[in-house]
Specification:
The complex is a heterodimer of chains A (740) and B (229). By secondary structure, chain A is of the alpha+beta class. In chain A, 36% of the residues lie in helices and 23% in strands. Chain A has a seven-stranded mixed beta sheet. The N terminus of chain A is likely disordered. Chain B has 229 residues and is of the alpha/beta class. In chain B, the strands form two sheets. In chain B, strands 2-1-3-4-11-10-9-6-7 form a nine-stranded mixed beta sheet, sandwiched between helices. A two-stranded antiparallel ribbon of chain B has the order 5-8. Classes of the chains: A alpha+beta (740), B alpha/beta (229).
Amino acid sequence: MSDEKEDAPAAEELSAHRLLGLTDEEHDHIVRILRREPRPAELAMFSVMWSEHCSYKSSRRHLRRLPTAGPHVVVGPGQNAGVVEVGDGWLAALRIESHNHPSLVEPYQGAATGVGGIVRDVFTMGARPIALWDSLRFGPLDRARNRYLLKGVVSGVAGYGNAVGVPTVGGELAFEDCYSGNPLVNVMCLGILRPDQLVLATAGRPGNVAVLLGAATGRDGIGGASVLASASFDVETEAKRPSVQVGDPFEEKKLIEACLEMYEQGLVAGVQDLGAAGLSCALTEPVSRAGLGIEVNLDAVSRREPDMSADELLMSESQERMMAFVEPAHLDEVMAVAKRWEIDAAVVGTVREGGNVSVYSGGELVAEVPAGALAGGAPILDRPYGEPGWMEDLWSHTISFMQEPALANSLLALLDDPAIASKAAIYEQYDHMLFLNTVVGPGHDATLLRLKGTRRALAVSTDGNGRLCYLDPRRGAARIVYEAALNVAVVGARPLALVDNLNFGNPEKTEVMWQFVETVEGIAEACRALDIPVVGGNVSFYNETDGLDIYPTPVVGLLGIVDELNFTPPRLDRAEAGMDVWRFGPTWAINLAGSAFEKVTFAHVGGRPSAPDPTSARLAIETARRLAAGDLASVLHDISEGGLAMAVAEICIASGVGARLYFDDWRHLFCEDPHRFVAAALAQNRQRVTEVADQLGITAEPIGSFGGGEISFERAGMRTSLDLAVATEANRRALPRRLV
Amino acid sequence: MTIAVAVFPGTNCEMDVVWVLRSLGAEAELAWHRDVDLAGASAVVLPGGFAHGDYLRTGAFARFSPIMAEVERLATAGRPVLGICNGFQILTEAGLLPGAHLANRDLAFICRFVEVEVVDTASVLTAGTQLGQVLRIPLNSYEGNYLDPSGRARLVLRYLEPNPNGAQDGAAAVANTFGNVVGIMPHPERATEALLGSDDGKVLLEAFVRAAVTTPAPAGGARSGVSVV
């Protein structure tokens, strides 16, 4: 032990930690922990484990404010995925994660490995992954670079998701200038499992062996967590391409089946997937959780390339690898399962008492570090934050309308906006039907998946709105939670649990940190109001390119449950001629701030969006759920981007039927104020629809009827209309025509 | 009267096919691609997915998997053999059906409902249908563009216009001369319940199950290396 060199740190060693993304303060902290200079392999491990991406060092103290408890929560934040009870002896595992920077550098592989990573997070918990959602944001499509990024990302999601055998059943797609240099690729995965198959990321007890399963380790993705995910970008991003991992969905498919078989047979004590920080993370987090240590033999790691150094092996983010912690008595069985599924397996370590991670390479000790110092040992930061002076300016920067716009033209412009238009050209490239669960698929407010063998169904909605959150991070964040909850309610579900993906700019700027803190508070407020626990999430900072930060962009994934699917779920395509158009929810405000209408027709982003109202939110959600579950409405659709006019137009297009709408103030047609939705219901249900609304004390108004071949807006003495065929063509062609 | 459902590494529709066959009253068991004995099987389905990752070419590796000798034996014995999507690609690659599959005309994966028309009822898949009957069934493929320069393929289902993927003569499903080996590009197992959007695929799989039952099999069950879930 004492024969190490005790030389004073050389100048090049000092710069070594900076090259790996560690600050001088962090380097000094490491020296204090080790009471010596770190060896190269140790420095490599610290650099990835203490990266923003892995350590949450800037966000952790704020994330504590999120509510995480609930009677049905089995596993909360901190594990690979959150797990909740959904009834009839089933658990659901869910997680959302970003792969923003890798997708900017190499869109196909960046998105593909984002899918691979989130799928691993879910089957690491013992769950079979049953569905994926992709929430994507890009710069405007008039720039070739953005078209290239979008096509690459979509091909990556399709290429990996389809082949790995997990259907992509929904998601989002939005466009803003701020995402030009920094696209957002957030992917959510849902899995299901029985309670006795739940596996945690723990090393178990001393004597257990660490078995590395799956692909060989290569030089791809070295420093992905530190160099790519935890730093800002500039025009030199192309040079970072070697930090992007390369995915192999076939290998992952085999890995899923092998691991699920091992869990089913009770062969593993714990499992950790290899994602960010690779072996460094997979070896230390599980032993740290168990309060133990581990002795690692890097020579046993199978590699793709010769001459890989210890630090490269420890930092590599090669995909499709899992670390299983196995009692020696089960080792032979584990190896047999791996062999049958045609995946590699090698014992690379043994769990020990003592709390140290000791890594040997070529018989030599290359690293010896306390596990707890690497996992969760990063110094927690309290970054300064403050409301930027420009918020007041932004709020007072409103638009006043001298006259009523041409309504039909405004609607047509919105229908042709790629953020609002039909996304069929995207989701038809994804297998969204595998496993025979998809009752309501992509293109709707929420996805509804039946749970085979039960009467239950699971609903999921992913929601974000960067523009709204830019104009008011707290209100915007709360509103996307309420919107997601309303979205699952319109397919008949009640909200159960939430995961969040918090995409932000550079946290070293006080205004970005303020946006982050406000956002967390907004999510916490809404989740408390609806009693929804946050069971997991991901923070992505440094979404900044050339000094320009993205809009604060939280994305939430909300899981809801239908206890008994004994009704026909509302769908956008179920409206028929003769049905009433209903409008539900508060009418107390008309605020166009942050609306798609102002952005699309006036290129304006300013003003302060309406604050959400928890009581109205709860009432709207419960009303929608009762209307759906009572078979009282054929279509339910929340009013969001594009407002009431857009919501009704989308129903008309999906159902192939026109509508007549009566209105008083034109602004009601485009305003996106929260807690409101529309419905299509049979005339014979009028009485019962009114009863449900009256019981809950929510405003419900019949505002027109479906029928004919036009979408028309009518008011005393005035009528304007848009031909349904024209509207349909604009909506369906908006994306494809921009992507050729 | 067991129907064996072949599983290659990378196959992903096996559970769906088993679920549907059982819901139609059939006995169905998974059979791992290394299993070389399907003595107890009265019929076999090659389900969709990405066998061996579709590497090199769809079906290129799968045709060499040990189970394919058994599939060929069943096919030549006149037993019902059905390839769905990737399974269809494997059957053409193995020479059990004529033709081959190219990438879709628009070079994009297609997952959506399409309409197909019955043009031949003399096959184990279409025996329960009427000529001209239109069925709504989902496609889910990248290499669905069927090509048969030999002209030997017997078309049993044809896409209604517009042709979604460029397949020759709009071929959605083809059979061998005897009608006991059928390859279909859309997924009938995804269209057996109105709850999921269509039950038009039921009439096809019911015919296949009937054919499996009426074609006698020797004693013994299908041996399977894969646990059935």
